Amino acid sequence: MAWIYLAVAGLLEIVWAFYMKKSEGFSLLTPSVITIIAMIASFALLSVSMRSLPLGTAYTVWTGIGAVGAFVVGIVVLGEAITPMRVAAAALIVSGLVLMKLSSSGA
């Protein structure tokens, strides 16, 4: 169950990063509110997952999901540049996430 909480927390990190971008420096109400709610929910679920997952694993996976997810959303939704170096960097992050998951003991 901890991994499910962690995955949802990571997805919520993508949500708050996107809406933070859309809030224009917290000057627009609706995206700002969505950002804050998604942040609180993401942190809460991360905290719950850390009850049984090691700190390093949970935090690395959470930030990795957020980083790669924000990268993909930036390209797909916001039209940001896709370059071979950026794709390689994202692939390395995903590789690290897989290794973290594989190195975790049964939790």
UniProtKB/TrEMBL annotation:
Q: Name one Pfam family in it.
A: Multi_Drug_Res
Q: How does it sit in the membrane?
A: Multi-pass membrane protein
A GO CC annotation recorded here is: plasma membrane
Q: Where are the transmembrane segments?
A: 27-46, 58-79, 85-102
Top-level lineage group = Bacteria
UniProt-listed GO biological process terms:
xenobiotic detoxification by transmembrane export across the plasma membrane
The primary location reported for this protein is membrane
Q: Which UniProt keywords apply?
A: Cell membrane, Membrane, Transmembrane, Transmembrane helix, Transport
- Localization annotation: Cell membrane
Give the Gene Ontology MF terms in alphabetical order. Answer: transmembrane transporter activity
Family membership, please give it: Belongs to the drug/metabolite transporter (DMT) superfamily. Small multidrug resistance (SMR) (TC 2.A.7.1) family. Gdx/SugE subfamily.
The name of this protein is Guanidinium exporter
Record lineage = Bacteria, Pseudomonadati, Pseudomonadota, Alphaproteobacteria, Hyphomicrobiales
